[in-house]
Amino acid sequence: xxxxxxxxxxxxxxxxxxxxxxxxxxxxxxxxxxxxxxxxxxxxxxxxxxxxxxxxxxxxxxxxxxxxxxxxxxxxxxxxxxxxxxxxxxxxxxxxxxxxxxxxxxxxxxxxxxxxxxxxxxxxxxxxxxxxxxxxxxxxxxxxxxxxxxxxxxxxxxxxxxxxxxxxxxxxxxxxxxxxxxxxxxxxxxxxxxxxxxxxxxxxxxxxxxxxxxxxxxxxxxxxxxxxxxxxxxxxxxxxxxxxxxxxxxxxxxxxxxxxxxxxxxxxxxxxxxxxxxxxxxxxxxxxxxxxxxxxxxxxxxxxxxxxxxxxxxxxxxxxxxxxxxxxxxxxxxxxxxxxxxxxxxxxxxxxxxxxxxxxxxxxxxxxxxxxxxxxxxxxxxxxxxxxxxxxxxxxxxxxxxxxxxxxxxxxxxxxxxxxxxxxx
Length: 425
Description:
The protein is an alpha+beta fold. The protein is globular. It is 13% helix and 31% strand. It has helices spanning 135-148, 165-175, 199-206, 236-246, 272-284; strands at residues 23-29, 38-44, 51-55, 68-70, 74-78, 81-88, 96-103, 106-114, 123-128, 152-155, 187-190, 214-218, 222-226, 252-256, 289-291, 298-301, 304-311, 314-316, 322-325, 343-347, 351-357, 361-368, 401-404, 413-416.
């Protein structure tokens, strides 16, 4: 169905969840075309007749004024929660949708989300993973996400330590900090990590179809491939990836998965299967950036191609793939003691990556999250391609990594700026 369109209206509201909330742990999930499809998830604590109200006009908590009402498609009892999911399809691209979660006795605060315009000129994406142990680090990172207002967070797995009900409930409570002060829900693109013991966990908590690998098209700019390093890499998964890449004509291609091919921590095992099945595939089909997690350290590489004569099977090549990672969204940080000749920079601290992507270039920044997030200014959604005052950028080998291409889809070149710094200091 098509939804009536209006111009974007910015209304600053005091947004809160009541201490007596009948639903909580709200989540917005991308698994398909974010121009027309989203999945809404939430935990029903109590109350009958769970439903949401939706409109392109902001009616606050006045549910009688909302145009559409939906009941959840699916309710899954898992990890001590009643996980309700609603898949919205055939949404109108480039619109803001306001949403209220309701049951017979309770009305939530007003949230909103955006669908991507088909002719979107630029995309902001945050990537990272391994949020396991240290809640304060995880909470700071999530607060920063809410202030930077990315179009999506590509999350690389290992959400919790051992996946108990308490740990998952805490994780979703902390994820609420990614919601901005005016109620904007931050979309997540989930990846399975090794601490998610089965694909069932992503299916039950994020409504991800098994075997939990998929592609998302971000307008006409970027295709993001979410892969699953915790199942068989050869066979079905690589066959699917090959077929997709052969037909992929997008300006930029990114891939995310959990376990790195060549971790930058000496105690971690090498990703031999990933190397065998994916490294040449990435190179031959111009996958520009690969985002890895798991090792709990920080790295960025020069563009590389697989070559068995090279250092751990790679050599620097201007037409190659840049590998980024490796986690540190709250898991214990490990020493970066396994650098390669093709490592551009590495470190050991809590961080995530921040991408600005248009058809001609990708800008990649490493955001250090060991700081008081309250010091960072919150961006207005219309100025999301701005570095806010107080944000801490990594001071190593350049403030940003820039990949540049042209309309003929030639291999990207690489450029570095001069230094990382804390903005406003």
